[in-house]
Automatic annotation (TrEMBL):
Origin species: Aquariibacter albus
Protein name, per record: Transmembrane protein
Superkingdom assignment: Bacteria
Keywords: Membrane, Transmembrane, Transmembrane helix
InterPro entries: BPSS1780-like
Keyword Membrane attributed: yes
Record flagged with keyword Membrane: yes
Spans through the membrane: 12-29, 35-60, 95-113, 148-171, 191-215, 221-242
Amino acid sequence: MKLRQVRPLQGLRWVRAGFAAFGAQPMAYSAQLGVAGLVLLLISMLPGGPLLSIALLPLLSWGFTVSGREQAAGRRVPALPWQAALRDPRQRRGFAALGLLYAALTFGSSLLADAIDGGRFNAFVDQLARESAGGGGTLDASGLEGTMALRMLLLGAVSLVFWHAPALLVWGRQTVAQALFGSVLACWRGLGAYLLMGLGWFLLLLVCLALVQLLLLALGLVQAASLAALPAGMAFSTAFYASMWRVYADSFEEEASAAAEPPAPAQSA
């Protein structure tokens, strides 16, 4: 694997590529996101499930990179793109290690944020739970913006560490340590593009939500306006994941043997 030079404006092109990929096969990508969400929901109900759900995120997100690769080759997006990796013992061990490390760092970033904000966020969550249960009281959201920004920053940093690691583990045939290092290096060298991409997704989502809610309010659909965030958020999430192959392909130059490797068996959605 060789790193490509990624310019900052490429980040906005990745946003456009995500919408283009999603628009070409919307039902297939939506079905994949639905399957992934259902798996996470069911696992979260088990003992220790929430932590296991976090550990599965590298594998599930890599599936969208597989789907994008299939789509770029002119094939249908597979409904279950994770099968090939789970059949290979080396890749199973690699994804298990990646998942455990991802869960540990995610949990660690939460503990660090708690230590920095003095438990303010957890106190707000407790107040919100009491309010939902009818316990009354006034919600104190003072300083919440700062702690939320801190948590997003820490989680964003963890995400960049693991961004390309699954693809490098499978297609680059790298060890877990090499894959993590390659992901960090790629994200660092193209940091401007990744930051601009994140900003682009965030601003587009805000604008879209505002326009939809204004339209529904103008039509007198007040209750529908409050519910508009859910479908809009789902559509943006799917388009975001649909962009992952383009981000990887623009960040790394695959060797001829890897590029010619037959793709994972596809199952049509």
